[in-house]
Amino acid sequence: MDIRVAAMAEGLVVSDLVAGYGGGVVLEGLSLDVPAGKSVALLGRNGVGKTTLLKTIMGLIHPKSGSITFAGHRIDRREPFQVARAGIGYVPQGREVFADLTVEENLLLGDLTASDADAVYAIFPALAEKRNSAGGRLSGGQQQQLAIGRALMAKPKLLLLDEPSEGIQPSVVDEIATILARTVKTEGMALLLVEQNVEIALRLTEQVCFIDQGRVVASETAAALRASPALIETHMAL
To answer: On the chain, which terminus has fewer CB atoms closer than 10 Å, C or N?
Structure first.
């Protein structure tokens, strides 16, 4: 088996996915791949299906048809806890930390078998200083670190990350991006990123998929988009 085939066998494969809410359809035959250890960004206007795709992968939405395979196993009919056990971590848009729980309590919810959160404190030292503070009292940037840290507690093979820069000041976004890039590389994780901040998306990923009307309509390497920024406007206008 060559390297590419092996990476796909251990990675995420979404095929002809149709999914939505109630009787409505948002994803209309969407297909994409995230090979093991690789990073992919999803770009597109609001409402085209990016968040819906992440929720469907995570089992929060069950698809109407199509398939989702991860590490060689179908996961499209599994419940969220089963998807998490399969090795997928999820950081939702809006962070969704537990406001009344301490930082440490929030982190330990990411891995109920863990006795401490020292591994995450090593990644996000600012959280160690706030370990006894309520999650709801943290700044937006600290809450985003907490949400990411909670997902990292289970040592996922694939991290789904939805709009990590939303509502956070640029200097903190830059810090989080630097830590994320280092962590993804060090841990050998795959990353599927939804992000409106194009600069951050290109910094964190190797491949960019453009979504419109519930489908992937174009795909480019991040290197190609950095070399020719006009390509971004061309694909976003589709």
So the answer is: N
